[in-house]
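Reading a protein record of the kind used here takes only a little practice. Think of the row as the fold of the chain written in a discrete alphabet. With that in mind, consider the following protein and its fold in token form:
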Amino acid sequence: MHRIYVIRHGETEWSAAGKHTSHTDIALTARGENQSRALAERLSMVVFDAVLTSPRQRARRTCELAGVLPQAIVEPDLAEWEYGDYEGRMSSDIRATRPGWTIFEDGCPGGESPEQVSVRADRVIARLRLLEGTVAVFTHGHFGRVLGARWIGLSVAYARRLLFDTASISVLEYEYDVREQPVIARWNG
């Protein structure tokens, strides 16, 4: 069976504070390192046929502490949503000057639009569909949510309904009947 484990990196100082972190290459906190080590135990019974990771150190370090970095391939398209002018800011601060703003519908000035992130997620999905067996993907909060929504054919706007905690594991696969149907088998576990 083709199964994809989507794993969010462990906690960073900015993720704990609710700050948007894309290109700022921030390290895991001590708690984030412990969360990532705990992933190793949770994943110990899984044999991965392929492992892909975001180029950001927080994702690569999570992959390392989870025990699968040696087989990982860096996939630039797994990087977090580019927040542009909103890098390092919290959603509540952004909404103070831009009421009703949501990244999934409005994107970020100086950063990526929902359409651009959708195209990037679709490229990742196309690559994943070419891989066989069980695959691990180490990525980020907003991009991981988009990946889940796009996997089941929904627009980026629906990603706002998929929470994705630090060091959580989600599983994407297919339901087989008359034809293959992409499904979310488990989310935010």
Remarks:
- The longest strand covers residues 169-176.
- Strands lie at 3-8, 50-53, 72-74, 134-139, 169-176, 180-186.
